[in-house]
């Protein structure tokens, strides 16, 4: 796989008003650039444009340069950007130059796209700088200031509550008494305490503590446990160190430097993946039992939401610490580092209970999802898991749509791997051949921007598979092998991603490996029983094995879990096939009729409707369905239908489908 290049524009100055560099400056610059592996260097009137193979060497080189040239009268300032594809090269050069020109002497500014392309690097921090205008582009670029985080920076003592942390002397005191810490435990505390503005990823902690040595997850768990014990914390309490499921750890106590330090702009939390806080639900019943129910509902929603691997979730205790707080959601979210907040209430009236919940995007303070459920009080324990799982599933669907919209509205130069991934998914759900190809391009860009990002691999595998199934893409063993390889690559990076196992199941089905497809989809539901797509995929796979009753049950479950899913047309369309193969054309026609009402429905839904109506024999409805199909897909034929259903193993199922189309007037 080709790597994404990085562009660095280096401006060398003799003093703040002089933009020219001496020959000596140039020699020094080119020596440093070559040592860090610059591919090329082009000099211009305002500085030098250097090209590197990847971002991290670019960043290290830039930081070394500004440090070497920090003494007057010399000085350097650097801007860094990366293109997302070959057509963006000129834009990336312009962004790098604009960032360098806006930087102060001795400063390195990095675009959001470049920030997304560099994996967490020990010793380097990227603080939010703010927007930078890039003429003639009509939008600003969100810039980040690169800085070293070595021994020089945390020289001040860091105070929290009655503790004093001295990174230089490597000591921790509580009320003047030294707290004994093992060296690795001390290193972990220093890392977390000097990065209170963000969740520190597990990979970054492993690199910081063990410097590339292979150790088990248990080793990290032991260090976190030892540090929590030293601070009077615990895995249950989490008042000092929060575990952010699927991401890493965050230090929760406010830090105060003991001596003045150079002021830095407030660092925004990592806005890549959503980080959701579920606050305690309001008890509107006026009794203690109502509070127990309300807390149980909120905790179970949190648990169910955490099963959606792409969503980060704040631990229960930090979120529940804000019970009864008079602060606004934006203030609470700021203290928790959350991008989204879920609130709700529980009200009892006689023997009935109503649960209401809503979710707010903090950046815009927009409520993007809400739902309510009513049930008998006697059923609350029986159906609590079901309600909470359904709430989490529907919230996750709307959150995905919200992320896609946010990615579309973000300027190109500010799109990192996460945004490119969601742009790809937005294109994918528009469900045309052109949009499918564009989705594949964007997912490949996301992989280039962050090779360890699991989701783009598995979703790309799914997109390639659907291109063959729905968009007349070339069907070959080699392409099916490529799709399988991508799915397995994604799962190698995150084997606990249920959507990854869903994608693997769909690839296996296209390869006619039905038993392996069912295994993968059942495993996806083991990881997340409320994943609507997996229920749909499993229903489809079971139908081709002739297990029609089991198949229909999973389709019903998918529709109940996610009635507004971007893929909901397929829930109904695949279900229509199952009914047709189960010799129930009336039910098949009803399901297909629901599918064709969805705006992004594929023409195959019309074909399924016509095949079912062909067996019913209502000539008026058959004519209407045939006309609708030929409008959606001019030239549709039996041969096209046969080629599209290449993944069917049972000849009787293919024959039944083609016979229905024949009766419907398709030749």
TrEMBL record:
<dbReference type="GO" id="GO:0006355">
    <property type="term" value="P:regulation of DNA-templated transcription"/>
</dbReference>
<feature type="domain" description="OmpR/PhoB-type">
    <location>
        <begin position="155"/>
        <end position="253"/>
    </location>
</feature>
<dbReference type="Pfam" id="PF00486">
    <property type="entry name" value="Trans_reg_C"/>
</dbReference>
<dbReference type="GO" id="GO:0000160">
    <property type="term" value="P:phosphorelay signal transduction system"/>
</dbReference>
<keyword id="KW-0802">TPR repeat</keyword>
<dbReference type="InterPro" id="IPR001867">
    <property type="entry name" value="OmpR/PhoB-type_DNA-bd"/>
</dbReference>
<protein>
    <submittedName>
        <fullName>Winged helix-turn-helix domain-containing protein</fullName>
    </submittedName>
</protein>
<keyword id="KW-0238">DNA-binding</keyword>
<dbReference type="InterPro" id="IPR011990">
    <property type="entry name" value="TPR-like_helical_dom_sf"/>
</dbReference>
<feature type="DNA-binding region" description="OmpR/PhoB-type">
    <location>
        <begin position="155"/>
        <end position="253"/>
    </location>
</feature>
<dbReference type="InterPro" id="IPR016032">
    <property type="entry name" value="Sig_transdc_resp-reg_C-effctor"/>
</dbReference>
<dbReference type="GO" id="GO:0003677">
    <property type="term" value="F:DNA binding"/>
</dbReference>
<dbReference type="InterPro" id="IPR036388">
    <property type="entry name" value="WH-like_DNA-bd_sf"/>
</dbReference>
<feature type="repeat" description="TPR">
    <location>
        <begin position="532"/>
        <end position="565"/>
    </location>
</feature>
<feature type="repeat" description="TPR">
    <location>
        <begin position="498"/>
        <end position="531"/>
    </location>
</feature>
<dbReference type="InterPro" id="IPR029787">
    <property type="entry name" value="Nucleotide_cyclase"/>
</dbReference>
<dbReference type="InterPro" id="IPR019734">
    <property type="entry name" value="TPR_rpt"/>
</dbReference>
């Amino acid at each position: 796989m080709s790597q994404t290049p990085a562009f660095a524009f280096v401006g060398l100055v003799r003093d703040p008003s002089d933009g020219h560099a001496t020959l000596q400056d140039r020699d020094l610059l080119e020596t440093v650039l070559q040592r860090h592996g610059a591919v090329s260097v082009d000099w211009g009137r305002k500085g030098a444009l250097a090209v590197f193979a990847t971002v991290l060497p670019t960043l290290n080189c830039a930081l070394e340069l500004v440090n070497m040239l920090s003494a007057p009268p010399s000085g350097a300032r650097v801007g860094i950007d990366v293109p997302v594809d070959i057509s963006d090269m000129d834009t990336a050069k312009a962004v790098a130059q604009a960032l360098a020109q806006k930087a102060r002497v001795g400063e390195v500014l990095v675009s959001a796209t470049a920030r997304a392309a560099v994996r967490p690097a020990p010793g380097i921090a990227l603080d939010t700088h703010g927007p930078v205008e890039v003429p003639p582009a009509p939008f600003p670029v969100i810039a980040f200031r690169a800085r070293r985080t070595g021994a020089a920076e945390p020289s001040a003592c860091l105070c929290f509550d009655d503790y004093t942390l001295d990174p230089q002397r490597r000591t921790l005191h509580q009320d003047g008494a030294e707290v004994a810490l093992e060296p690795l435990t001390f290193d972990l505390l220093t890392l977390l305490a000097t990065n209170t503005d963000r969740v520190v990823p597990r990979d970054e902690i492993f690199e910081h503590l063990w410097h590339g040595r292979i150790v088990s997850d248990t080793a990290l768990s032991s260090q976190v446990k030892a540090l929590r014990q030293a601070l009077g914390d615990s895995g249950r309490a989490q008042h000092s160190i929060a575990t952010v499921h699927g991401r890493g750890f965050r230090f929760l106590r406010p830090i105060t430097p003991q001596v003045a330090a150079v002021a830095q702009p407030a660092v925004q939390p990592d806005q890549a993946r959503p980080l959701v806080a579920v606050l305690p639900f309001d008890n509107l019943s006026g009794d203690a039992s109502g509070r127990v129910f309300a807390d149980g509902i909120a905790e179970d929603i949190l648990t169910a939401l955490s099963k959606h691997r792409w969503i980060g979730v704040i631990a229960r205790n930090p979120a529940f610490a804000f019970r009864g707080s008079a602060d606004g959601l934006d203030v609470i979210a700021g203290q928790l580092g959350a991008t989204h907040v879920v609130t709700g209430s529980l009200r009892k009236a006689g023997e009935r209970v109503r649960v209401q919940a809503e979710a707010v995007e903090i950046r815009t303070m927009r409520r993007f999802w809400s739902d309510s459920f009513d049930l008998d009080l006697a059923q609350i324990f029986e159906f609590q898991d079901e309600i909470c799982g359904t709430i989490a599933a529907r919230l996750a669907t709307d959150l995905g749509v919200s992320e896609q919209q946010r990615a579309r509205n973000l300027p190109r130069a500010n799109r990192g791997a996460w945004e490119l991934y969601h742009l790809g998914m937005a294109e994918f759900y528009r469900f045309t051949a052109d949009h499918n190809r564009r989705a594949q391009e964007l997912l490949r860009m996301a992989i280039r921007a962050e090779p360890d990002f699991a989701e783009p691999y598995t979703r790309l595998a799914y997109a390639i598979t659907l291109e063959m199934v729905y968009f007349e893409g070339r069907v070959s063993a080699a392409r099916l092998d490529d799709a399988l390889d991508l799915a397995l690559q994604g799962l190698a990076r995150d084997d606990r991603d249920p959507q990854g196992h869903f994608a693997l199941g769909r690839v296996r089905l296209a390869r006619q490996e039905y038993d392996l497809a069912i295994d993968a989809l059942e495993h996806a539901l083991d990881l997340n029983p409320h994943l609507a797509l997996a229920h749909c995929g499993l229903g489809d796979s079971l139908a081709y094995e002739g297990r029609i009753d089991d198949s229909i049950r999973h389709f019903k479950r998918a529709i109940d879990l996610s009635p507004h899913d971007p893929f909901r047309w397929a829930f109904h369309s695949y279900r229509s096939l199952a009914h047709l193969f189960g010799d129930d054309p009336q039910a098949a026609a009803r399901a297909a009729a629901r599918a064709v009402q969805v705006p992004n429905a594929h023409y195959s839904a019309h074909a399924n409707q016509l095949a079912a109506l062909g067996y019913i024999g209502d000539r008026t409805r058959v004519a209407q369905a045939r006309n609708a199909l030929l409008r959606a897909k001019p030239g549709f034929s039996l041969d096209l239908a046969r080629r599209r259903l290449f993944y069917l193993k049972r000849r009787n199922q293919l024959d039944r489908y083609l016979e229905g189309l024949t009766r419907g007037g398709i030749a």
